[in-house]
Structure formats: structure tokens, C-alpha cells
Amino acid sequence: MARRAVILAGGQCKWGVREAHLVDLFQEAAKACFEDIPTLKPKDVDGLIVATSYSGRCSFQVNTAPVIAERLGLKPTSICTRCDTLCAGGSTGIILAKGLVEAGVADIVMVAGGEKLYTPQKWEVFYSELASVDHDWDGAQGMGLPPPFFALTAKEHMKYYGTKKEDLAMVSVTNYNYAVDNPVAQMQKALTLEEAMNAPEVVPPLTLYDCCPITDGAAACIITTDEIAKKFTDRPLVYIRGTAQVCLNSVTANFPGEHLADWKHLRIAAEKAYKSAKVAPSDIKVAQTHDCFSISEIIEVEELGFCKKGEGGAFCSSGQIKIGGKVPINTDGGLLACGHPFGATGIRQAIEIMKQLQGRARHQVKDADIGLTHNLSGANAEHTIIIYGREPVK
Amino acid sequence: MAVVGIPILENLYPVTMDMWPLEAKEFNRIWQFYENLKQGRFTTTKCKDCGKVAYPPRVICPECYSENLEYIDLPKRGKVIVFSEEVRGVPLGFEAPLIHAVIDLGVEPVRRLLSRIINCPAGYLKEGDEVQLVVFQIPSHPIEKGKQGTIMAERVFFAFEPVKKP
Hints:
Chain A is 35% helix and 17% strand. Chain A is built from 14 helices and 11 strands. A 5-stranded mixed sheet of chain A has the order 1-7-4-2-3, with helices on both faces.
């Protein structure tokens, strides 16, 4: 019988400004991951994929996988490697792990992602952001830190579709309020619309709560096959039904859409992911979309097919992303409130969807059986989607 | 001057901390782009075999993989489609206001070029404004050349500025 990948367990450390080293954060995350599945022991894990992008710049460490394997007491025999797709690194690790376990190359893979971004002097991480975009072209134009790029994106969405600042603010309010009771989120603040509307300016029209914070943190999950998973757990199995990762450009001059609020590459990714998962947008009961900025979530709900193009602002501000809405989104707080340690984010999203599909989420969506995670990475250079389900693809 | 906490880096050039490209021909096969910039020309590569014009310049054609490329001139004037202004919290290496614009240079593949706008005060720029290329000096860096010793590689970079002076 075909081997079918599932996500078996996951955990994360406390995210925020952490008084800790990168390898400390990975150890805390791995401990939380094994606490989620007490029957599984480190010796059972035969593969490790580490997702981190800034280890080389902020921790002076490349070839990070052996370092993490050793500190976690893992002795991988099938795969031990690192992947770097910045904001999508964790999801990339999960896609790779799915392929490896389904191909029989590996049996039980830990995907662990993390970043230690706060440096002794803060200028260094901000300066290093010049490496997050196409360095010689967009970096040299001062596009390293992302707020200007997403301010341009928001202005074009406002121009073409009439989206208002209130729509942006409602995304922040919704996502912050999901995280008020999330003990591992960076921000646990009840946010009001008034506060969000009157927040300090970053790059107009973006203000403080429109932007996710800089975050130290790590997360880890276990990817294996359904048959192996059954030996370790009685919980409902959560299958990785379909995936897509689309890259059409790097330099912003080659952005594939008609304008910056037209995310053609996400539409292509969505079409492929839905097709491979054999589901439609209307089947998605809960989602984790990449809310690095409030405007991102507004465009994502459009391109993922949850509403019509141009109606993302109204969709989000009318409560369709809340529990009881059409598609509850970022039910643990998303990037805006949980924070965004790049390589760890996709794993945090996967853990929340796993819990939703197993009926044990903090803000539970009733009868959630199909869930989706999405990342954008770089200067909107790549889109990554994973679709999870209680049933395998038939 | 010694680097605080890391005295061994005194007088050393760390390329991993350089915000600008390595433009010298010793380190970059598209050095001609930067040489053209020094002459005030904004250029990119065109494939002589299939005709594809790519931006930024390449050493192979992304369409047919030919190495038979030539540098062609791109327009140096364009119109602002949309722009952003960052006044506070501008990142290290850039001055406030940090203005970015998507510029239409009127020809493919630079119908939506993203560039910094300089020589422009905050609140001055408007959508539809005409902007033009500006080339400016950026810091030189050392290159070790064996027996010849160390040379300094001079560099320029580009941005755009309003045609109508503030």
C-alpha cells in the first residue's frame, strides 16, 4: 500500500525577544514537540530537516543541521540537512519530509525551524535584512526591511479595489485577539480597532499593528507515514494531502502580477495545491495564511479563492476570518501576534492546523476536517501552500 | 579603527557586511553594467540569438541559454506609478526620507522598476511625476591582487530623482 505522510506531533518554545542562543531555542522546541507525543522518543527519529535562514548571519553558524541534531540527541540515518527559504523554510521542510517518507527514504522525520534574530546591537539584524531580498538589486535600493514594499502593495490594493485602512486594522485586531490566551505568542495583547487605527506610523499606510514583529523562536514537528503514526498515537491522523511552492521572480522589477496587489504566483500555487489535495477553496474549514503584514492576509484570502478578487478587505473586516466566519484564519494569532522567526513559522502554522483537525485547538473551529497553511517569502518572491486533511487523498 | 569586541577586524573589509554589490570584474561577470553606469548609461543584456531582453543583466539568456549577449541602453526617464515614504526608523545605510517608487520606464522589462527616489524631500513626490536616473559614487573596497598588492575598486550605484527639482 502507498505510504502516506501525516503530521504526528509538534511543539514550539516561547517566542519573542529571548535571552537565549539559537541552539537553546531549538532544544526547547524539540522538548515541546516530544511532550506532545510521549510515546515517541528521540531514538525513533531517523531524519532531521532544519529550517533556518539567519543562522549564518546572526549566530555565525552554517551547516546548522549537525549542530541541532547533536544538541537534540538525535542520530539521523536517512537525512540530516538544512533548508533556507526564509519565511517559508518550515513549510519547505514539511514538503521535503513528506516526499522523503512517502518515497521510503525516511520513516520518521523531525522538521525543526528557528531563528535567533535579536543581536547584541539591534542594527545588525535590520542591516542583515539586505540579504533577505535580491541583494545587489533590491537590497542596494534599500528594500531590505519589508515595510516599504508592503506599503506599496497596500497602496495599490487601495487604489484598485478601494480597500480602506480600517480593513487593514481589522486583520490586526482579529489576529491579535486570537493570541491573547496563547502563552507562547510574542504578543498577548487585546487590541481594539481604535488602538490599531491610532498606532504609530511605520511606512504609510502601514502602522505599528499592521506589521509582524522581529522574533526569536523555534518550533518542531514530526512527519511520518500513517501506518507508522498509528503505532504511536490514538489521535485522529492528519494527512498532508497536497502541496505547492511557486517561484516566478526574485528581483521586484520582474514581479509577475499586473501590479503589486495582484499575486499571480499565489493563484498558481493555490490551483496546484487544491488539485493535488483534490479539494476546492470551499472545502477549507480553517487556514493559516502568511500575515507578515495585514495587507498580506487581505490579498491571500482573495488569491486562495476564499472570496472574489478585490473583496479581501471586506471579507476580513466583516468577520469572515473569525470563529464562525466563512474561513477562520490564523486562529493562534498568526505572524502578527505570534511573531515570525522565519524558519519556524511554517511549523507553527502546521501545528495549529494539526490541532484544529484533531479537535484540540485553543480557538477550535467546529468540524474542521480540511486545513491549509500558506507562506510568502522574500520580497513576495515565492508562495508555499500545504493542505492538510483528516482523510488521505483517494 | 578597531571593531568593538572584535579587534582582529581592524582595517579589514568584510564583504558579508557590504550593502552594495561587488562590481569589479574580478568578482562579477556583469561588470559591464556598472562600467556603463559610470558613463551615465542604464543598460541591460539582450540575447543576440533569440532577442530576449532580460533585467537585471545576465551572463546567459534565461530564454535560450545562449551566452551570445549584448548590452543595450534602457530609458533613463520614467513615470512614478506608486511610491512609499519612510520618514522614521530608516534602516542603517540610508537617509530619511527613504522613498521607494515603482517606475514605468516605458519598455519591457522595466515597465515596473522598483527604485529609490533621492534628491527629493518628504511630501514632494506625486504619482505620475517624471523621474530620471541618477548615478552616484559608493564606497570603494580593497581587492588583494597577489604580487601587485592591494588595489581599491571604485564603485557607483543608481537611483532616480524627480525631473522637476524641488
